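# step 3/5: fold
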Amino acid sequence: MGSENNSMKDEFEKLVATAKITRPQMEALLQLTDNGYCWHRSWGFGKITTVDAVFGQFVIDFQTKKGHKMDLAFAAESLKPISKDHIYARKVADIESLRQMAALHHLDLIKLVLQSFGGKATIDQIQQVLVPDVIKDDWKKWWEAAKRELKKDGHFQVPLKKSEPIVYQAKETSLQERLMGDFRAAKGLKARHTVAHEIQRNFSDINDKPGTAKEIIAALNAEIATHQRTQPATALEAIFVRDDIREAAGLTATEGEITSNQIWQQEARRIAELLEAVPGAKHRRALHSFKAATPDWDDSLVNALNSVSTKVATEMAEALIEGGKLDRLKELLSRLISQHQASSDLLLWLAKERSDTYADILGPEVFRAMLTAMERDQFNEKRSNKLRDFILDDSTLLVELIGSADLEVIKDLTRALQLSPCFDDMDKRSLLARIVKSYPAMQALISGEQTKQETTYQVSWESLERRKNEYAELVQKSIPANSKEIAIARSYGDLRENHEYKAAKEMQKILMRRKSELESQLVRARGTDFANAKTDVVSIGTIVNVTDLEHNQAEHFTILGAWDSNPDQGVISYLTPVAQSLIGHKPGEEVEVQSDSEKKRYRIDAIAAYKTAEAPAAAPQSEQPATV
């Protein structure tokens, strides 16, 4: 399009002569025509495809408006010319060369982007223009490699803050000169520590390591002394980076300089406050130095654990475990949970962690404590929302916590959840649906609807009591004992050869499966003493005398509840095939019964009420419910 500039100038001169455009507009139009690319503040980058002097318009392909027609006078005022060397123009003209540059010459590509934006651009701007057109693969990996090259190259100024622009300068400056210049210009210990940390990260590329280290250490020592009481967290960070630089340079400590031990000696009681002021990346380092400086460090952490953020609680708990204080940590957790005093941040940490290490702590009381903590913190929106959002987002948390609870506890928790002001109605329905999905027996408890008659069991009071006792033994003793076994076995370490752990986990599956079976049965069971049973026909609660017609042999059956069975004494469940065949028939009628693999034919001789007769032995040999 540039080759046509002279002819286009003549055409534009005609438009100026007829007052369709002004002379300043003509100069802008000539530059736009010569470059062939433009920028509009709303439509972005565009390529000028046609210049029509007759109709006085440009035809432009914008990214979102192909073939857009624009009046020349308006174009001269609203469009900015884009050079053919601009990154946007290069993407249109030769995208493959840019992709090859991205693969082989990181700095050339970044230099092109920076020069396209006036010599500087932020990381976000660079990413937006290169991804995904030029860089299709992992941007983060590409940028990390490019950033290392940028810092070593003397033409690029890479800021410490991501929001500030990267600058290209023609004059080359060494990495040491640039970083030390930033260090000397930094105002205040916080700013100097930030630059010192960057120097420490790039120390292998520093030419004069001892000289650089001595200057930094002297400057930091002077400011640490003035900050140790007013800003101890900042002083502690500076001590860490000072010590790291000294070690990297192979220097010895300066006599009389302030150490991390001295900071902790004056700040041990404020461990929680100080750790909250230290960046998360330094929490572990700070805790290690605290443990080394404080003999009763575990007392301090235990006392502070319930008052810190989730992030700090995570590091404190890890420090206690590494220090062999797991039992003390679990004792604290159990007490805070049982007394409903655990903070929402501490409970959020436990919910995120919830490994088998804490199997003997995790349970329904944890969820109850969560509700209490959220209600207590409901006016502290930041805290309560974090825990609430995690409960809603983690689809398995609630189910896992209530998995070991008995029916009455789940019923109480359900009521507490329904009354809680921490969840709206939609969220409550979502949580309740999770309970029902995993524990169908809870449907009636949650909905308030009675179980349909055809899904209930009629059982004797004696068998019902036995099954309730089995359930109570399971949830009150067997499951808690198994959880404790899992936690203990987990503490032994390597799970690949940990046979105690594997056995305990396998037993957990068996116990939880039996618990689910019992819940399903108990919620459907209806106890009865079989009083007033109908005797005109065979019914539940009757003793039936029959004759086996094939062998002409007298037999009797006592038809009782779903869980009653004592074959030696003729006691059978009403759900057995024999009972189902007999029920509803009168004396004198003949009935065909499918028993095991053979068919038998019985004649009903007499029917009597079970309650008025001498009861058979009350200890059935099988407690499993019969199948229809």
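# step 4/5: annotate
The first strand starts at residue 37 and ends at 40.
# step 5/5: archive (pending)
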